[in-house]
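Ticket #4471: structure output looks truncated?

Reporter: J.K.
Steps to reproduce: submitted the chain below (385 residues) through the standard prediction queue, then opened the result file.
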Amino acid sequence: MKQVLATFLKPASTKVGIITAIMFQLLFSLIWMTGYRGVSDNTSHLKIAIVNEDQAMGSTIVNNLQSNLPFQTELVATDAEAQSKLNNRDVQMVMHIAPDFSKQLQTAGQTAPITYTINESNPSMTKSIMQAVAGNITATVNKEAVAAGASAALKQVNPNLPAEQATQIAQGLSGKVTSDIQSTNKVKDMPNQMLPMMLVLASIVGTMIMGMNFSVSSNMLGSALSKGGKLGARVMVTIAAAVVVGLISASMVVALGGHVEKGFMALWGFESLFLLTFAWVAQMFLTLFGNAGMLFNIAMLSLQLVSSGAIVPRELLSDFYHNVSDYFPATYAVNGLMNILFGGPDVGREAGALILIAVIALAIDVLIVSVKKVKTAPAHKTQSA
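Returned output as attached by the reporter:
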Protein backbone atom coordinates (compact mmCIF):
# COMPACT_ATOMS: atom_id res chain seq x y z
CA MET A 1 0.00 0.00 0.00
CA LYS A 2 2.91 2.34 0.75
CA GLN A 3 4.17 1.86 -2.81
CA VAL A 4 0.71 2.66 -4.18
CA LEU A 5 0.47 5.84 -2.10
CA ALA A 6 3.96 6.94 -3.11
CA THR A 7 3.16 6.36 -6.77
CA PHE A 8 -0.15 8.24 -6.50
CA LEU A 9 1.44 11.20 -4.75
CA LYS A 10 4.33 11.42 -7.21
CA PRO A 11 2.55 13.21 -10.14
CA ALA A 12 2.53 17.00 -10.00
CA SER A 13 -1.25 17.02 -10.57
CA THR A 14 -1.84 15.24 -7.23
CA LYS A 15 0.32 17.75 -5.37
CA VAL A 16 -1.35 20.67 -7.12
CA GLY A 17 -4.77 19.27 -6.15
CA ILE A 18 -3.82 19.14 -2.48
CA ILE A 19 -2.23 22.60 -2.56
CA THR A 20 -5.32 24.00 -4.30
CA ALA A 21 -7.62 22.64 -1.58
CA ILE A 22 -5.41 24.18 1.11
CA MET A 23 -5.18 27.53 -0.68
CA PHE A 24 -8.97 27.66 -1.08
CA GLN A 25 -9.28 27.58 2.71
CA LEU A 26 -6.44 30.02 3.37
CA LEU A 27 -7.39 32.60 0.74
CA PHE A 28 -11.11 32.54 1.42
CA SER A 29 -10.57 32.87 5.18
CA LEU A 30 -8.05 35.69 4.77
CA ILE A 31 -10.02 37.70 2.20
CA TRP A 32 -13.51 37.24 3.65
CA MET A 33 -12.48 37.97 7.23
CA THR A 34 -10.55 41.11 6.27
CA GLY A 35 -13.03 42.17 3.58
CA TYR A 36 -16.04 42.26 5.89
CA ARG A 37 -14.20 43.59 8.92
CA GLY A 38 -15.66 46.90 10.09
CA VAL A 39 -18.74 46.72 7.84
CA SER A 40 -21.03 47.81 10.68
CA ASP A 41 -18.73 50.77 11.39
CA ASN A 42 -18.84 52.02 7.80
CA THR A 43 -22.52 52.95 7.65
CA SER A 44 -21.38 56.59 7.59
CA HIS A 45 -20.42 55.96 3.95
CA LEU A 46 -24.09 55.58 3.00
CA LYS A 47 -25.72 58.68 1.56
CA ILE A 48 -29.25 60.09 1.90
CA ALA A 49 -30.65 62.74 -0.43
CA ILE A 50 -32.94 65.23 1.30
CA VAL A 51 -35.56 67.22 -0.61
CA ASN A 52 -37.06 69.90 1.64
CA GLU A 53 -39.96 71.93 0.25
CA ASP A 54 -41.12 73.29 3.62
CA GLN A 55 -39.06 76.30 4.66
CA ALA A 56 -40.46 76.51 8.22
CA MET A 57 -40.55 73.29 10.21
CA GLY A 58 -38.81 71.42 7.38
CA SER A 59 -35.71 73.60 7.61
CA THR A 60 -35.48 72.98 11.36
CA ILE A 61 -35.74 69.24 10.81
CA VAL A 62 -33.10 69.21 8.07
CA ASN A 63 -30.63 71.23 10.15
CA ASN A 64 -31.03 68.90 13.11
CA LEU A 65 -30.71 65.77 10.96
CA GLN A 66 -27.58 66.99 9.19
CA SER A 67 -25.98 67.63 12.58
CA ASN A 68 -26.96 64.31 14.16
CA LEU A 69 -27.39 61.63 11.48
CA PRO A 70 -24.46 59.16 11.24
CA PHE A 71 -24.80 59.19 7.44
CA GLN A 72 -23.80 61.46 4.60
CA THR A 73 -26.61 63.80 3.60
CA GLU A 74 -27.06 65.79 0.41
CA LEU A 75 -29.61 68.55 -0.06
CA VAL A 76 -31.22 68.21 -3.50
CA ALA A 77 -33.41 70.91 -5.03
CA THR A 78 -36.10 68.75 -6.63
CA ASP A 79 -37.59 65.34 -6.04
CA ALA A 80 -37.00 64.40 -9.71
CA GLU A 81 -33.27 65.06 -9.36
CA ALA A 82 -33.13 63.06 -6.13
CA GLN A 83 -34.99 60.12 -7.71
CA SER A 84 -32.50 60.14 -10.60
CA LYS A 85 -29.61 59.92 -8.13
CA LEU A 86 -31.40 57.09 -6.35
CA ASN A 87 -31.95 55.18 -9.59
CA ASN A 88 -28.25 55.54 -10.44
CA ARG A 89 -27.27 54.36 -6.92
CA ASP A 90 -25.50 57.64 -6.15
CA VAL A 91 -27.59 57.78 -2.96
CA GLN A 92 -29.16 54.98 -0.94
CA MET A 93 -32.40 56.73 0.03
CA VAL A 94 -34.41 59.89 -0.72
CA MET A 95 -36.14 61.77 2.11
CA HIS A 96 -38.84 64.20 0.96
CA ILE A 97 -40.53 66.83 3.13
CA ALA A 98 -43.66 68.20 1.40
CA PRO A 99 -44.45 71.96 1.11
CA ASP A 100 -47.43 71.70 3.48
CA PHE A 101 -45.57 69.76 6.19
CA SER A 102 -45.79 72.58 8.81
CA LYS A 103 -49.44 73.22 7.99
CA GLN A 104 -50.28 69.55 8.51
CA LEU A 105 -48.54 69.64 11.88
CA GLN A 106 -50.78 72.50 13.02
CA THR A 107 -54.01 70.93 11.82
CA ALA A 108 -55.83 68.91 14.45
CA GLY A 109 -56.45 65.30 13.55
CA GLN A 110 -53.92 65.27 10.73
CA THR A 111 -50.54 63.56 10.50
CA ALA A 112 -47.52 64.95 8.67
CA PRO A 113 -45.80 62.21 6.69
CA ILE A 114 -42.16 62.28 5.65
CA THR A 115 -41.74 60.30 2.43
CA TYR A 116 -38.79 57.94 2.12
CA THR A 117 -37.93 56.24 -1.18
CA ILE A 118 -35.64 53.21 -1.34
CA ASN A 119 -34.22 51.62 -4.50
CA GLU A 120 -34.56 47.84 -4.12
CA SER A 121 -32.22 47.29 -7.08
CA ASN A 122 -29.40 47.00 -4.56
CA PRO A 123 -28.00 44.41 -2.16
CA SER A 124 -30.76 43.39 0.26
CA MET A 125 -28.72 44.81 3.15
CA THR A 126 -29.14 48.31 1.72
CA LYS A 127 -32.93 48.02 1.86
CA SER A 128 -32.85 46.69 5.43
CA ILE A 129 -30.54 49.45 6.65
CA MET A 130 -32.51 52.23 4.99
CA GLN A 131 -35.86 50.97 6.29
CA ALA A 132 -34.43 51.06 9.80
CA VAL A 133 -32.97 54.52 9.16
CA ALA A 134 -36.35 55.84 8.00
CA GLY A 135 -37.99 54.71 11.22
CA ASN A 136 -35.19 56.22 13.30
CA ILE A 137 -35.39 59.56 11.47
CA THR A 138 -39.14 59.79 12.06
CA ALA A 139 -38.68 58.95 15.73
CA THR A 140 -35.92 61.56 15.98
CA VAL A 141 -38.10 64.20 14.36
CA ASN A 142 -40.94 63.40 16.74
CA LYS A 143 -38.96 63.23 19.96
CA GLU A 144 -36.07 65.63 19.50
CA ALA A 145 -36.00 67.83 16.42
CA VAL A 146 -39.65 68.87 16.60
CA ALA A 147 -39.60 69.41 20.36
CA ALA A 148 -36.46 71.54 20.11
CA GLY A 149 -37.56 73.91 17.41
CA ALA A 150 -41.29 73.47 16.85
CA SER A 151 -42.50 76.42 18.89
CA ALA A 152 -40.27 78.94 17.14
CA ALA A 153 -40.99 77.45 13.72
CA LEU A 154 -44.75 77.58 14.28
CA LYS A 155 -44.49 81.23 15.33
CA GLN A 156 -42.59 81.90 12.10
CA VAL A 157 -45.34 80.28 10.03
CA ASN A 158 -48.09 82.14 11.93
CA PRO A 159 -46.81 85.35 13.61
CA ASN A 160 -50.22 85.94 15.23
CA LEU A 161 -50.08 82.64 17.06
CA PRO A 162 -49.74 83.30 20.83
CA ALA A 163 -46.49 81.96 22.32
CA GLU A 164 -48.38 79.86 24.89
CA GLN A 165 -50.51 78.26 22.21
CA ALA A 166 -47.45 77.61 20.06
CA THR A 167 -45.82 75.83 22.99
CA GLN A 168 -48.91 73.69 23.56
CA ILE A 169 -49.09 72.73 19.88
CA ALA A 170 -45.38 71.89 19.89
CA GLN A 171 -45.79 69.60 22.90
CA GLY A 172 -48.63 67.81 21.15
CA LEU A 173 -46.70 67.20 17.94
CA SER A 174 -45.00 64.02 19.16
CA GLY A 175 -46.34 61.16 17.11
CA LYS A 176 -47.87 63.35 14.39
CA VAL A 177 -44.88 62.85 12.07
CA THR A 178 -45.18 59.51 10.28
CA SER A 179 -43.09 57.50 7.83
CA ASP A 180 -44.29 56.92 4.28
CA ILE A 181 -41.79 54.38 2.92
CA GLN A 182 -41.93 53.75 -0.81
CA SER A 183 -39.82 51.55 -3.05
CA THR A 184 -38.63 51.72 -6.64
CA ASN A 185 -37.48 48.76 -8.75
CA LYS A 186 -39.19 46.32 -6.40
CA VAL A 187 -37.77 42.81 -6.11
CA LYS A 188 -40.35 40.08 -5.77
CA ASP A 189 -38.72 37.63 -3.37
CA MET A 190 -35.50 36.28 -1.89
CA PRO A 191 -34.47 34.02 -4.82
CA ASN A 192 -34.64 37.00 -7.16
CA GLN A 193 -32.70 39.19 -4.72
CA MET A 194 -29.90 36.61 -4.66
CA LEU A 195 -29.80 36.12 -8.45
CA PRO A 196 -26.90 38.52 -9.17
CA MET A 197 -24.67 36.80 -6.62
CA MET A 198 -25.65 33.32 -7.86
CA LEU A 199 -25.09 34.14 -11.52
CA VAL A 200 -21.73 35.80 -10.87
CA LEU A 201 -20.52 32.99 -8.59
CA ALA A 202 -21.56 30.29 -11.06
CA SER A 203 -19.93 32.19 -13.92
CA ILE A 204 -16.59 32.74 -12.16
CA VAL A 205 -16.30 29.14 -10.96
CA GLY A 206 -17.51 27.68 -14.26
CA THR A 207 -15.14 29.70 -16.44
CA MET A 208 -12.25 29.06 -14.03
CA ILE A 209 -12.72 25.28 -14.34
CA MET A 210 -13.25 25.59 -18.10
CA GLY A 211 -10.00 27.54 -18.43
CA MET A 212 -8.13 24.92 -16.39
CA ASN A 213 -9.35 22.16 -18.69
CA PHE A 214 -8.51 24.18 -21.80
CA SER A 215 -5.00 24.57 -20.40
CA VAL A 216 -4.72 20.80 -19.89
CA SER A 217 -5.91 20.21 -23.46
CA SER A 218 -3.32 22.64 -24.85
CA ASN A 219 -0.53 20.93 -22.93
CA MET A 220 -1.64 17.49 -24.10
CA LEU A 221 -1.51 18.61 -27.72
CA GLY A 222 2.11 19.70 -27.28
CA SER A 223 3.64 20.62 -30.65
CA ALA A 224 1.02 18.72 -32.62
CA LEU A 225 -0.52 22.13 -33.31
CA SER A 226 1.17 25.52 -33.53
CA LYS A 227 0.87 27.76 -30.51
CA GLY A 228 -1.00 30.29 -32.66
CA GLY A 229 -3.41 27.61 -33.80
CA LYS A 230 -4.08 26.44 -30.26
CA LEU A 231 -4.60 30.01 -29.08
CA GLY A 232 -6.98 30.77 -31.95
CA ALA A 233 -8.98 27.62 -31.29
CA ARG A 234 -9.14 28.38 -27.58
CA VAL A 235 -10.38 31.92 -28.22
CA MET A 236 -13.09 30.78 -30.64
CA VAL A 237 -14.27 27.96 -28.38
CA THR A 238 -14.37 30.35 -25.41
CA ILE A 239 -16.52 32.84 -27.34
CA ALA A 240 -18.90 30.11 -28.46
CA ALA A 241 -19.07 28.65 -24.93
CA ALA A 242 -19.84 32.09 -23.43
CA VAL A 243 -22.75 32.59 -25.83
CA VAL A 244 -24.17 29.08 -25.30
CA VAL A 245 -23.73 29.11 -21.51
CA GLY A 246 -25.25 32.60 -21.38
CA LEU A 247 -28.25 31.37 -23.36
CA ILE A 248 -28.76 28.39 -21.05
CA SER A 249 -28.41 30.51 -17.91
CA ALA A 250 -30.77 33.25 -19.11
CA SER A 251 -33.30 30.64 -20.22
CA MET A 252 -33.22 28.95 -16.83
CA VAL A 253 -33.70 32.26 -15.01
CA VAL A 254 -36.76 33.11 -17.10
CA ALA A 255 -38.18 29.56 -17.02
CA LEU A 256 -37.96 29.45 -13.22
CA GLY A 257 -39.81 32.73 -12.77
CA GLY A 258 -36.89 35.10 -12.47
CA HIS A 259 -37.65 38.82 -12.42
CA VAL A 260 -36.07 40.20 -15.63
CA GLU A 261 -37.06 43.86 -15.95
CA LYS A 262 -35.24 44.61 -19.20
CA GLY A 263 -36.05 41.39 -21.03
CA PHE A 264 -34.53 38.07 -22.01
CA MET A 265 -32.28 39.35 -24.83
CA ALA A 266 -30.64 41.96 -22.60
CA LEU A 267 -29.93 39.31 -19.96
CA TRP A 268 -28.56 36.82 -22.49
CA GLY A 269 -26.28 39.37 -24.14
CA PHE A 270 -24.93 40.77 -20.89
CA GLU A 271 -24.38 37.32 -19.36
CA SER A 272 -22.48 36.21 -22.45
CA LEU A 273 -20.27 39.29 -22.16
CA PHE A 274 -19.30 38.85 -18.53
CA LEU A 275 -18.86 35.08 -18.99
CA LEU A 276 -16.39 35.83 -21.76
CA THR A 277 -14.60 38.37 -19.58
CA PHE A 278 -14.35 35.97 -16.61
CA ALA A 279 -13.08 33.23 -18.94
CA TRP A 280 -10.33 35.32 -20.50
CA VAL A 281 -9.19 36.66 -17.12
CA ALA A 282 -8.98 33.09 -15.76
CA GLN A 283 -7.14 31.87 -18.86
CA MET A 284 -4.72 34.79 -18.67
CA PHE A 285 -3.52 33.70 -15.20
CA LEU A 286 -3.17 30.09 -16.38
CA THR A 287 -1.13 31.19 -19.40
CA LEU A 288 1.06 33.39 -17.21
CA PHE A 289 1.70 30.96 -14.36
CA GLY A 290 0.69 27.51 -15.59
CA ASN A 291 -0.96 25.34 -12.93
CA ALA A 292 -0.05 27.93 -10.30
CA GLY A 293 -2.44 30.27 -12.10
CA MET A 294 -5.27 28.44 -10.34
CA LEU A 295 -4.10 29.98 -7.07
CA PHE A 296 -4.52 33.45 -8.59
CA ASN A 297 -7.95 32.46 -9.87
CA ILE A 298 -8.97 31.27 -6.39
CA ALA A 299 -7.84 34.60 -4.94
CA MET A 300 -9.74 36.45 -7.67
CA LEU A 301 -12.87 34.43 -6.92
CA SER A 302 -12.93 35.35 -3.24
CA LEU A 303 -11.83 38.95 -3.83
CA GLN A 304 -14.59 39.52 -6.36
CA LEU A 305 -17.32 37.93 -4.27
CA VAL A 306 -16.40 40.14 -1.32
CA SER A 307 -15.97 43.41 -3.20
CA SER A 308 -18.53 43.23 -6.02
CA GLY A 309 -21.51 44.41 -3.96
CA ALA A 310 -23.47 41.21 -4.57
CA ILE A 311 -23.64 40.39 -0.86
CA VAL A 312 -22.67 43.52 1.09
CA PRO A 313 -23.00 47.06 -0.34
CA ARG A 314 -19.63 48.30 -1.58
CA GLU A 315 -20.16 51.51 0.42
CA LEU A 316 -19.76 49.50 3.64
CA LEU A 317 -16.43 47.93 2.69
CA SER A 318 -13.04 49.28 3.70
CA ASP A 319 -11.39 51.76 1.37
CA PHE A 320 -9.00 49.10 0.05
CA TYR A 321 -11.69 46.65 -1.02
CA HIS A 322 -13.94 49.43 -2.31
CA ASN A 323 -11.18 50.89 -4.49
CA VAL A 324 -9.80 47.59 -5.77
CA SER A 325 -13.29 46.47 -6.82
CA ASP A 326 -13.24 49.08 -9.60
CA TYR A 327 -10.73 46.86 -11.46
CA PHE A 328 -12.63 43.58 -11.14
CA PRO A 329 -15.18 42.39 -13.73
CA ALA A 330 -17.56 41.05 -11.05
CA THR A 331 -18.32 44.60 -9.87
CA TYR A 332 -19.64 45.56 -13.30
CA ALA A 333 -21.37 42.20 -13.76
CA VAL A 334 -23.30 42.67 -10.49
CA ASN A 335 -24.27 46.29 -11.25
CA GLY A 336 -25.39 45.37 -14.75
CA LEU A 337 -27.36 42.36 -13.55
CA MET A 338 -29.19 44.47 -10.97
CA ASN A 339 -30.14 46.97 -13.67
CA ILE A 340 -31.33 44.26 -16.06
CA LEU A 341 -33.07 42.06 -13.50
CA PHE A 342 -34.60 44.63 -11.14
CA GLY A 343 -34.52 47.93 -13.01
CA GLY A 344 -32.20 50.90 -13.25
CA PRO A 345 -30.17 52.78 -15.87
CA ASP A 346 -28.86 51.13 -19.03
CA VAL A 347 -25.77 48.93 -18.78
CA GLY A 348 -23.61 50.77 -21.30
CA ARG A 349 -21.03 51.78 -18.68
CA GLU A 350 -20.82 48.28 -17.24
CA ALA A 351 -20.60 46.67 -20.69
CA GLY A 352 -17.82 49.06 -21.68
CA ALA A 353 -15.81 48.24 -18.55
CA LEU A 354 -16.24 44.49 -19.13
CA ILE A 355 -15.11 44.80 -22.75
CA LEU A 356 -12.03 46.77 -21.67
CA ILE A 357 -11.06 44.17 -19.05
CA ALA A 358 -11.65 41.33 -21.53
CA VAL A 359 -9.50 42.97 -24.21
CA ILE A 360 -6.65 43.62 -21.75
CA ALA A 361 -6.76 40.02 -20.47
CA LEU A 362 -6.80 38.59 -24.00
CA ALA A 363 -3.96 40.90 -25.11
CA ILE A 364 -1.78 39.72 -22.20
CA ASP A 365 -2.68 36.12 -23.02
CA VAL A 366 -1.70 36.57 -26.68
CA LEU A 367 1.54 38.32 -25.71
CA ILE A 368 2.61 35.55 -23.32
CA VAL A 369 1.74 32.80 -25.81
CA SER A 370 3.74 34.55 -28.52
CA VAL A 371 6.92 34.70 -26.43
CA LYS A 372 6.64 31.27 -24.82
CA LYS A 373 8.51 28.36 -26.33
CA VAL A 374 6.48 25.42 -27.58
CA LYS A 375 7.07 22.25 -25.57
CA THR A 376 8.36 19.33 -27.58
CA ALA A 377 5.86 16.51 -27.90
CA PRO A 378 6.79 13.22 -26.16
CA ALA A 379 6.68 11.35 -29.49
CA HIS A 380 9.40 13.59 -30.93
CA LYS A 381 11.60 12.96 -27.94
CA THR A 382 11.40 9.22 -28.53
CA GLN A 383 12.33 9.57 -32.21
CA SER A 384 15.29 11.83 -31.53
CA ALA A 385 16.55 9.43 -28.88
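Triage note (M.O.): checked the attachment and the full C-alpha coordinate line is present. Confidence is low (pLDDT under 50) at residues 377-385.
Status: closed, working as intended.
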